[in-house]
């Protein structure tokens, strides 16, 4: 589901979500869901959610969550009555992404209530990325990560949470989701971002004594190759083919999602 950019737009988005072998063998659909939006020349947003395998309706929860998060962010980019300016010019990024997570949490609870089903049955993780003008900011609840390209440097803007046990995660539907929400610093001078779920972590990240780091042999060639295709169906297909390649399958049987946002106008300085 590429997001074709409007004429003169700064941002382009492509991505794919594929079912892992474990789900395919059980006849289950991919429980990763993503959605993106480009707000003219002002900004762009991506939301990625991973339905928990232990949640019977995790896929549906993920769908509701990403839709609500993107809708909440889009409101900030509606032009004023005079046709110029928008609320995103005045609201700090960290407040917008936190508000998007809150909107997603509330939407899943409303949906669960309407279905007369416990909200735990719709449990999912959530990553929200906002590219507002020259600032990139993320919010993350649960697994997954975000790597950004700043000049020639790869920056892990949002790292996976440290876990003592497999599948130990605080989902969006948990009462303590706000405490578990990790907001990144604002990052400037960015030319590309990659948002991905935990099914990709083993290939995309390296665990070192001081924490996680981007896997350098992967990201620089990847960003270079995908940049001309971003925002087109060809970009989506290239990412999907990568995720179902033998190398990826051998590293993880989990569902995998990778979404890329690019721009041709990176400028400014890293503020984190």
UniProtKB/TrEMBL annotation:
Membrane-spanning segments: none
Annotated PPM-type phosphatase domain residues: 20-227
The protein's name in its UniProt record: Protein phosphatase 2C domain-containing protein
Organism whose genome encodes this protein: Methanogenium organophilum
């Amino acid at each position: 589901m590429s997001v074709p950019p409007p004429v003169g737009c700064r941002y382009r988005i492509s991505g794919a979500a594929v079912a892992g072998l474990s789900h395919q063998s059980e006849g289950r659909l991919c429980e990763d869901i993503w959605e993106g939006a480009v707000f003219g020349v002002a900004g762009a947003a991506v939301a990625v959610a991973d339905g928990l395998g232990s949640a019977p309706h995790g896929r549906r929860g993920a769908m509701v969550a990403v839709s609500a998060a993107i809708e909440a962010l889009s409101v900030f980019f509606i032009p004023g009555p005079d046709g110029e300016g928008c609320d995103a010019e005045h609201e700090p990024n960290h407040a917008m992404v936190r508000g998007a997570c809150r909107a997603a949490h509330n939407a899943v609870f409303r949906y669960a209530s309407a279905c007369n089903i416990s909200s735990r049955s719709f449990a999912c993780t959530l990553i929200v990325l906002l590219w507002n003008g020259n600032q990139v900011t993320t919010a993350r609840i649960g697994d997954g990560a975000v790597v950004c390209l700043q000049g020639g440097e790869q920056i892990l803007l949002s790292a996976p949470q440290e876990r003592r046990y497999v599948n130990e995660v605080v989902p969006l539907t948990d009462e303590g989701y706000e405490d578990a929400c990790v907001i990144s610093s604002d990052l400037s001078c960015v030319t590309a971002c990659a948002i991905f779920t935990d099914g990709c972590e083993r290939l995309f990240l390296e665990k070192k004594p001081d924490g996680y780091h981007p896997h350098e042999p992967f990201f620089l060639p990847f960003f270079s190759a995908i940049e001309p295709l971003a925002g087109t169906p060809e970009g989506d297909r290239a990412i999907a083919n990568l995720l179902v390649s033998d190398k990826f399958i051998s590293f993880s049987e989990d569902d995998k999602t990778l979404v890329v946002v690019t721009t041709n106008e990176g400028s400014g300085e890293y503020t984190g």
